[in-house]
Amino acid sequence: MYKNLEAIDKVIDKDIAIKNVKDYSFAKEQKNAPITISEFYEACKDYPILFIKDTNNQWMATVMLGYKENENVFVDKEGKWSKHKYVPAHMRRYPFIFASDKDSTKLTLGVEKDYKEEAKKDNVRNLFDEEGNNSKYLNDILGFLNHYHQDSIKTSSFIKQLEDWNLLEEKNANIVISKEEQYNINGFFIVNEEKLKHLSKKKKEEICNKNVSPLITAHLISLSNIQRFS
After folding, report:
1. Residue 156 sits in which domain range?
2. Which residues 6+ apart lie within 8 Å of 75 measured at CB?
3. Exposure pattern of 188-203 as b/e (b: 16+ CB <10 Å)?
């Protein structure tokens, strides 16, 4: 999705604005997307919410957007997202992203180079004002990304807690389009409902105290959406 990222530099980019993202063509090859716990209640209505580990072996939640490689079934040929379907924050933050070095926890704001253009007076999408300070637009972007980053950390902790409670099980799904066309989706984890039912009283109280029951319920409800792909 991100192909040509550049870090935002206050000096180099003092006269830069960002073009408007007109459609979701950039996401048409994304068959899944990360989401955070604050998105569960909306996302569960439209997509399966699955748990996986990223390249750094950290837990993350993801929504299934397709079953073929490089195909998002919710983006049409014109780049429009399916009407009335929730658009994950991962997509809505584009063309911006927070990036960090492997050896550093410092976050750097990056943007797709192709979306940069020359700033113009009174353009609400200028990155900086005439004094070189952050524009309202840039501060809004930073606020959105900071919230998303913090939610991502909370999401990883939530899934790690599910693992510690021994509630996760690895699963696979078989998407049957026709007798000749079938797809196997594997490598994801879900909450085991039987284990959830037979938790000890102490663990049930812990789940209640941490107020994560609604998140677990949203995840379990979402799994029925897998059938919609067939």
Report:
1. 5-229
2. 24, 25, 27, 28, 81, 82
3. bbbbeeeebeeeeeeb
Single-letter amino acid, residue 79: G
Sign of CA dihedral 16, 17, 22, 26: positive
What's the whole-model pTM score?
A: 0.92
Q: How many residues does the chain have?
A: 230
* Residue whose entry in the numeric block shows the structure tokens 């105290």: 209
* Distance from C-alpha of 42 to C-alpha of 210, rounded to nearest angstrom: 21
- What pairs with residue 63 in β-bridges? 33, 49
Q: Model confidence over 50-64: pLDDT tens digits?
A: 999 988 889 999 999
Question: How many separate domains does the chain show?
Answer: 1
pLDDT of residue 99: 85
What tens digit of pLDDT does each residue of 156-167 get? 999 999 999 999
pLDDT beneath 70, residues of the chain: 101-104
SS3 content of the chain, % helix, strand, coil (to 5): 35, 25, 40
